[in-house]
Amino acid sequence: MRDKLKKLIEAYEELEKRMMDPAVVSDPKEYARIAKEHANQSELVEKAREYLGALDDIDAAKEMLRETSEPDEKEMLQADISENEAKLPGLEDTIKVMLIPGDPNDEKDTIVEIRAGVGGDEAGIFAGDLFAMYERFAASRRWKVEVLSASPSEAGGYKTIEFKVLGDKVYSVMKYESGVHRVQRVPKTESQGRIQTSTATVAVLPEADDIDIDIKDEDLRIDTYCASGPGGQGVNTTYSAVRITHLPTNTVVQSQDQRSQIQTREVCMQMLRARLYEVELERQQAEQGASRLAQIGHGNRSEKIRTYNQPQDRVTDHRIGFNGTYNGVLLGDTLPSVIEALAAADRAEKLAQAV
Fold first, then answer.
1. Are residues 169 and 68 in the same domain?
2. What pLDDT score was predicted for residue 227?
3. Does 11 share its domain with 147?
4. Is residue 104 part of a domain?
5. Per-position DSSP letters for 289-302, written without gaps between them
6. Mind listing the pLDDT tens digit for each residue in 134-160?
7. Which domain holds residue 228?
8. Angle, in degrees to the nearest 10, between helices 335-354 and 71-98
């Protein structure tokens, strides 16, 4: 442990030197990358220095203890040794957790897509309920939600809705929501009182920037068209809606919910970067034989991760067997407890693999 932590501190100090290198300072992308890595390591290095300091103090006190014959001095030195030795187990456990490889996307904002699945109108209503749940959850954490694109369902809710969540370490929390969500309840549209099962898929994508993914202009086809739906006099007369196709991958994104074509185009580019970044991450993970980064289960759109059962007032997360109340989770009040349990299980699994 001691040698490993010394090397870690040396690498951190090397990063500090590189941040002062004129060649790095003059390259904004490289400087931003190094500065981010430096910031991510700072807390771990602080604990490593504290741990090594305690070991050095123990060694020094033991050396002095061998050389002295004074009872009072021996008692004082033994007390120092005992105090520092008592610190070591807690520091070691903390450092082991911090040494678990982190998800490089954890600091990022996210783009979330909710899509109604099986269940007809009820699936759209459920998709709307999930969006409202995430809105309340985001508000409780002082995060900001921006709707990027939405296709409302006739009976309420949404056929699809894509939105951006901005705030502190958003992806580190929201990534656990990717997958198929299933609801069992009596729909508002059901006159016979029969319970129906419906689904909605949730995809949580880390927001990608120019550093993460390079998109060439010649690889894009950009179409503009008239927006449709509510919006006032300008609707169907102004080409404010934008569709962008990434030709090499045939990835298509579109939006019509912004105030100008320039804003809509920028939103589409954000969505496109996020989707292409997700494809690249999945390719890397497939090569490494790994599951989705830092998620319990695969977290993909085909995996059923959670069931919301209204008649039994129960929500079950199938990845860890966590149970909560229907209203508590869907209203966003106890959703943090579910996510915290998933994160704890994720850390425990990684720690077990690292030992």
1. no
2. 67
3. no
4. no
5. T--STT-SS---TT
6. 999 999 999 999 998 889 998 889 999
7. 217-287
8. 110
